[in-house]
Amino acid sequence: MAFYRKNIGSRQQMMRLALGVAVAIAAFVYLSGFAAWLVAASGLGFALTGLVGYCPMCAVAGIDTGDAR
Question: What are phi and psi of 5, to 5 degrees?
Answer without folding.
Answer: -115, 130
